[in-house]
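Form 7-S
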Amino acid sequence: MLVSSIAKFNAMNQMNNAAFAMMQSSNAMMNNANGHTFGGEHDLSMLNKMDKKLSLDLVTNKLLYKISYLQEKMASKRIEAESKKNGSTFSALA
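Output:
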């Protein structure tokens, strides 16, 4: 049960980190859209590269969030199954 609890907390930590990273990428994209002046082709290509990188970061973090969510859900089910198997009434972590 301890290993399942650790896995659950690890997945929850990964979910929080991914959500924070998504927020950071989104904020950076908004700052780039609002804060840059378009002074020529060099600036536009730089802005395009930054947009591609931030978009990829956002998609990657969304995928990591979904995977972590599923890991947390599986760990919760495992904790519940272990507590039923052991007949434990203490399922405070589940």
